[in-house]
């Protein structure tokens, strides 16, 4: 995660953009779009899956760049962040 944030994934390019990272939002329900990571750094995404939908289930997300520290300027450059989405069933 980006320094000072539990919701913004860090830019992995050391010589790239500064004060910017990547956030991942759930858009599964268009009326309830939210950051998949809570402000405490925990997962907020829980999707019920019926037995009939276990094969080829899919979930909708989008990623965007996010300023990390509102008091600092963003310095332009390349942004890259590898984000792994884990899935488990209970």
UniProtKB/TrEMBL annotation:
Protein name from the UniProt record: Fimbrial-like adhesin protein
Organism: Escherichia coli
Gene: yadK_1
């Amino acid at each position: 995660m980006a320094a000072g944030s539990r919701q913004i994934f860090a830019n992995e390019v050391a010589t790239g953009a500064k004060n910017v990272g990547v956030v991942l939002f759930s858009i599964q329900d268009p009326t309830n779009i939210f950051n998949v990571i809570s402000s405490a750094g925990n997962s907020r995404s829980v999707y019920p899956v019926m037995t009939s939908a276990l094969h080829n289930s899919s979930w909708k997300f989008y990623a965007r760049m996010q300023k990390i520290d509102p008091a600092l300027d963003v310095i332009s450059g390349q942004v890259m962040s590898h984000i792994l989405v884990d899935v488990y069933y209970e």
